[in-house]
Each structure stands twice: as C-alpha cells, then as structure tokens.
Amino acid sequence: MQLILYSDSSPNGFKITIALAELELPYTLKHVQIDRGEHRQADFLKLNPHGRIPVLVDPEHDITLFESAAILLYLAQKYGRLLPDNPSERWAAITWLQFHAASMGPILGQRVHFERFAKHPCPDAIARYRRLSEELFSTLDQRLAEHPWLAGSEYSIADIATFGWTHIARIIEFDFSQYRHLSAWHERLGQRPAVQRGIHLPAPATGP
C-alpha cells in the first residue's frame, strides 16, 4: 500500500516531497490548497487537528504523522536512508533537524509574516526577526564551514529540512549571500535531481 502525502507548496511541504524523491518511493499526493482553506476542512482536521501541512499516512502500518521533522525521522528510520549509521553523525543530523524545527522555521516564519503579510507594519518585530534570522544564518554558516553537510560527511534529513526554508528565503529575497558556506551548501543541494523534483510538488512556490 502506497504512502499518502497531504501537502501544499510551502517550506514544510517541500521537505517531504524532497525526501520522498530522494528515497525514490511511490506515493499518492493529495494537494491541500491552503489559500482555499482546505486545511481547515473537517476531513483534513481528522488527520491533523492543528490544521497544518504536511501530513503523511502510512496505510500499511496504520500510522498518520504530522510535523515535518517527525515525518522525516519516520521515513529515514523506516527505509534506512538519509540518517548516517555513524552514531556521532546520526545524532548530529537529529540535532540540526531539531535546530531547524525549534529555531529556523519559527524565526523565518515570523519574519515572513511581519515583512510580507502583517496588515500594520511593526518595525520592532521586523528588526527583531531580521536580527534573529541573521544569527541563525551565521550559526549554519559556521557549521558548514567545517563540514560539507549538517550531519558531517553525509547528506541527511537535516539538510533537507533546512533547505526547505532556505529555498523559500531565496524566493522571497531574504539575502544570505554574505554567508558563503551556507550559500555554497544551498547551491550544491539545489542541484540534486530529487531536490529539483521535490520543490515542484504539488506546485512550484511563488511566495511563502
């Protein structure tokens, strides 16, 4: 039985479509169109009561998952790829996956809101989230100055998760070009065929 992915064109959604492409897994894609409010419909709320994408259903094991980090961990564990076998690098990958979930996503998400969508400008909030996003770009840059991938020597779900947000940051012109190691990593990752496929599902992003 195929996996079922409920998703939309967003940083969180792209993380999972990239991972599934990397794993070369067949799956059924259900496009949840957020701009039409489909994420608030009763059928979707049964899958994720918080009304957010992505959601992954594994009918074979009767498992339903939401939160992109949890889905990435599930896929990596189930299929034995995208997490290093070496314990040190494996836990590094998990650590940087948690960094993305606890810091990168929330900070960039708030910056997107205050800079692009807030009805009334809030200069203090804009300044705060610009400063915090520069700090996280710097943190990533320092890590990537010493290692080709966030886990160390191996590409992993930590890179996929982080790329979901750097991809959107570039689209909406949040500039991190001054962080040369992060920028080089982003360009290198963006050349992977699975990444190129993943960011076009269910449709290319034209905004956040």
From TrEMBL:
The GST N-terminal domain, residue ranges: 1-83
InterPro entries: Glutathione-S-Trfase_C-like, Glutathione-S-Trfase_C_sf, Glutathione_S-Trfase, Glutathione_S-Trfase_N, GST_C, Thioredoxin-like_sf
SUPFAM superfamilies given in the database record: GST C-terminal domain-like, Thioredoxin-like
Transmembrane segments: none
Residue span(s) of domain GST C-terminal: 86-208
Family according to the record: Belongs to the GST superfamily.
Protein name in UniProt: Glutathione S-transferase family protein
Origin organism lineage: Bacteria, Pseudomonadati, Pseudomonadota, Gammaproteobacteria, Pseudomonadales
